[in-house]
Amino acid sequence: MLGSKKVKAISVDDTGGPGVSIANPGYDPGSPSGQNQVSEFLQSYFAAIDTLGMCLFASIPILESLDLQRELTRAVAAKLGVELPDGYLQELGRGVVVAERAFNRLAGFGPGDDRLPGFLRNETLTPGGNMWDVPDEDLDKMFS
């Protein structure tokens, strides 16, 4: 609680996305390694898309193409009347997620609150039988 009001964590529940894509052919969603990098990239990308007021589903083709990402950045720059660097979308999104995480820390939420509930860590997924096995240390490295 902050003051006399209950505080809810800011959530980035709409900032996950498809790690499997033609733009990322080597990605293995069943491997515990590398998940934090893919997740951090996707959370940053979709936080930027959300911040710009775009539809997440309409943004997936942009995610698949660096040329389209540059064009979107050019469109945002034109609208704002400023110059923006390549990589602006990632910078914008990362800033949003970092700000949300800072808010959550000030509201009393810590790294332990960044963990999946037990049942999601212990149940196998069908049909492949995969189970959550991403180390907590990898989660702690995200956005640090």
Q: Globular, elongated, flat, extended or rod-shaped: what is the shape?
A: globular
Domain count, please report it: 1
Describe the biggest sheet?
A: none
Write down the Rg.
17 Å
Strand content: under 5%
What is the CATH-assigned architecture?
Orthogonal Bundle
What's the N-to-C terminus distance? 25 Å
State the helicity in percent bands. 40-55%
Summarize model confidence as the mean pLDDT: 83
Give the H and E element order. Answer: HHHHHH
Question: In the CATH scheme, what's the topology name?
Answer: Aldehyde Ferredoxin Oxidoreductase Protein, subunit A, domain 3
Query: How many DSSP helices?
Result: 6
Going by CATH, the homologous superfamily would be Aldehyde Ferredoxin Oxidoreductase Protein, subunit A, domain 3
Beta strands, count = 0
As residue ranges, the low-confidence spans are: 1-9, 11-15
* Broad structural category: mainly alpha
- CATH class division: Mainly Alpha
Folded structure, characterized:
It is a single chain. By secondary structure, the chain is an all-alpha fold. It has one domain: Aldehyde Ferredoxin Oxidoreductase Protein, subunit A, domain 3 (Orthogonal Bundle). Helices cover 49% and strands 0% of the residues. The chain is built from six helices and no strands. α1 packs across α4. The longest helix is centred in the C-terminal third of the chain and has 19 residues. It is globular.
